[in-house]
Task: structure prediction
Amino acid sequence: MKTTLKEYKIKDICEGFVYNELEAKGLFGLSGTLTIQPEYQRHYIYADGKKDVAVIESLLRGYPIGLIYFNKIGEDKLEVLDGQQRITSIGRYVQEKFAIKDENGMPQNFTSLSQDKQKQIMDTTLLIYECEGKEDEIKEWFKTINIVGVPLNEQELLNAIYSGEFVTLAKEEFSNSQNSNTQKWSAYIKGNANRQEFLAEALEWVSKKEVGDYMSKHRKDKNIDQLKNYFSSVIDWVSQTFIDVEKEMKGLEWGRLYEEYHKKGYDPKKVSEVVQKLYADSCVENKKGIFEYVLGGEKNTKLLTIRIFSEAVKNSVYASQVAEAEKTGVSNCSHCAIGHDTNKNKIWRLDEMDADHVGAWSKGGKTDISNCEMLCKTHNRAKGNK
Ligand SMILES: [Zn+2]
Result:
């Protein structure tokens, strides 16, 4: 069986579109050369005001509507193998068989759209695989992609769309479970080679998350040097900066962290000590945040999600502060008590106060009752911003 990736514009597909209301089938397109719903295909089932509308809204937002497959059954004769529901929806919309709703909920049929939007729909390019082969071959393959097979993931689709020498080489390197490097990569990247997840990550790093653009630009390249070198630089940098491998390192945004921090120098031994200390600290709830926290110079404690005081601790501290306040006749917020405004004598309710670390966690303060003070929300916030 032979497959060729082709691009068709919607205006060409819709040329000569015929829909048969009686049979509920989209019949023809592409100036009569395309049979949309051949005999053996099910009827058009997207006319529910949701699925058909979703197809048109996707086009207007520039979202892909997925791959479409044609079966080439003769010179200038094509049949839709997969995609007849989508194509029929588009044809029916363009022929004003249904309307979508605009942002104000007003119905919009095709000709009531602005010229720009009409043009946008008509000029949208659809990626279409044309298959040629024996009927049973094609049916077998169709069954594999649709029923038996696991649905293609995003990277697998991109590989299909941008197939060529570049993708072949990239898969040889990154999607090859025989490559002895995959074990090392697994420490930092989630997923596995067979499902293209290392390749997806490598492309995401080198392209700064513009994977489709990158693949399109490099589609005809005869080598993958840039992709490979960039990927190695990131992996080398991580493994040299953090000498211990922790399970929380897997799946972090190493590409972004590399871009942000690789120009700074680190002492791997010191880094290791800090990481180990943070791992041992029970106040650090988000272990995944440790690496970026250390790279950033141990400043952004938000990354670590420091454990907060328990309700029991807060209740107990609150009760003793209230008792003390009632004895001395000043506010139960120590900051209010030393102020000169009307809150000087105010006894705040528990729900008007927040717990504060007296000695900051980052300076060694513990999250236990000896280091807990209740402050009114205003003062707690003011202190937190310092
Ligand atoms: Zn206060």
User: Anything to note?
Assistant: Residues 333, 335-336, 375-376, 378-379 surround zinc ion (CB under 6 Å). Residues 144 and 150 are 8 Å apart (CA to CA).
